[in-house]
Amino acid sequence: MSSKVPVDRWEGVDGLQFVGQAYPTHTLLDSTPCPEGSESWCRYQRAKAAGSPLKEIEQGLPNKIINQIKPTYLKLCNETLLKKCLHGKTQNCNESYNNILWNIVPKNIFIGLETFRLGALLALILYNSGYAGILSVIRNVNGSLPESVAQELLKFDKQRISTSLRHSLPIAKLSRKKEKQLGKQKVLRMKKQKA
User: Fold this and answer.
1) Distance CA 57, CA 54 (A)
2) How far is residue 118 from each of residues 35, 111, 115, 123, measured CA to CA in Å?
3) Which helix or strand (DSSP H or E) is residue 15 part of?
């Protein structure tokens, strides 16, 4: 098997199950045999076949840990489970919260703990209640808020919900799928032109 994964290998469930073959690479090198030759998934065996020394050999996970996580790992490579990932809808709630958080709090510059906590709390309110939640907090802290500000915050919520509903329509999903497929075809054409 080649060490590099062809682009079309990732198409469909077979390609996703191919990821499961990476499992043996994280076991301890001393006690786990790996296939020999230049086509091996093992860096050491590829280097040995090429006649060049391997500069770094990182220690894998101990067999005790490997044996503990192996059943879960193999369940995640199950065909039924992987089919659910093929058509999108794979973002979980935590990823959505993180998206809101990192839009509020910058990752690329240092901020203090208090700023991060405030950002995390704002993200939590936005995630759970939208801008209406922010409006509620402001009213509880300040007591009063200009009506124009309140209307703008509620308008943001309506726009967010409207956009979300529009993006979840079957026609929008189909359009995104076609766009993604066209992008893949373009990449494949470019690779063929280079070859």
Assistant:
1) 7
2) 52, 11, 5, 9
3) helix 12-18
> CB under 8 Å to 73, separation ≥6 — which residues?
20, 23
Distance of alpha carbon 129 from alpha carbon 127, whole angstroms: 6
* Residue corresponding to tokens 């995104």: 176
Predicted confidence (pLDDT) per residue in 81-93, tens digit: 777 666 665 566 6
Helix, strand, coil percentages (3-state) for the chain, rounded to 5, are: 70, 0, 30
Collapsing DSSP to helix, strand or coil, 156 comes out as helix
**Encoding tokens for residue 41?**
């998934």
**Per-residue confidence (pLDDT) for residue 122, from 0 to 100:** 93
- Asked whether the beta carbons of 30 and 36 are under 8 A apart, the reply is no
Model confidence pLDDT, tens digit, residues 147-156: 888 899 899 8
**172 secondary structure, DSSP code:** H
- Do 106 and 116 form a contact (C-beta atoms < 8 A)? no
Q: Which of 1, 3, 9 is nearest to 188 (CA)?
A: 9
Average pLDDT, the chain: 77
